[in-house]
Amino acid sequence: MEAELDVRDYVADFRDVERFEKCCRQCPNYGRRHGCPPFDNDSTARILRYHRVRVLGMKVIPQGERQPLSAANDLIEPVILELNRELLLLEQELGGMACGFVGKCPYCSGPCARLNGAPCRHPDKMRPSLEALGFDVTKTASELLGVEMQWGTDGMMPDYLVLICAVFYNA
């Protein structure tokens, strides 16, 4: 799934930094991963230096019987690795800035270097998620990509998972 629009429209209609920063603060990884807020730089200025955004989405459908929610990371990790590779190629092709996926970094096997005040071990691959920059991915999925996000219930995965990423760039 794909949508393209003006960055200022995306920021105005789909970004609420205060709301999502509050959500991020509730996560135990807040400030503990390089892809998570708080960030040292002004993310609004970084985003607004671009004119266009290409939002990409993928629906991941578990095979077989309903699976426990705890299996979600194992299901999406290989998909995220492939999508990140494609996302970084698109970032390079467009000369822009990519936003990846929320969750554990797929490149580090141990704890994030941020815990020790060290720089990211994979700055060439790690990108913050849209959520980390204050974007509403549920609204993005629904209004821009035409797919409703589903959430797990009773410890079980939903019928499908949706991954949302983007590249900000100048046309």
Description of the molecule:
This protein is an alpha+beta fold. The chain has one domain. Helix content is 32%, strand content 15%. The longest helix is centred in the middle third of the chain and has 23 residues, at 72-94. The mean pLDDT is 91.
Ranges where pLDDT stays below 50 over 5 or more residues in a row are: none
Report on the biggest sheet.
4 strands, antiparallel
Cα(first) to Cα(last) distance is 20 Å
> On the 0-100 scale, what is the average pLDDT?
91
Please count the beta strands (DSSP E, at least 2 residues each).
4
> Nearest-angstrom radius of gyration?
16 Å
Structural class: alpha+beta
Count of the separate structural domains:
1
- The helicity comes to 25-40%
> Which percent range describes the beta-strand content?
15-25%
Number of discrete helical segments? 5
Order of helices and strands: EHHHEHEHE
Shape: globular
Strand order of the largest sheet: 1-2-4-3
Q: What topology emerges from the helices and strands here?
A:
Blueprint: E1 2-6, H1 7-14, H2 17-25, H3 43-48, E2 52-60, H4 72-94, E3 97-99, H5 137-145, E4 161-169
Antiparallel strand pairs: 1-2, 2-4, 3-4
Observed structural traits:
single chain, 171 residues, alpha+beta, 4 strands, globular
Summed up:
By secondary structure, the protein is an alpha+beta fold. 32% of the residues lie in helices and 15% in strands.
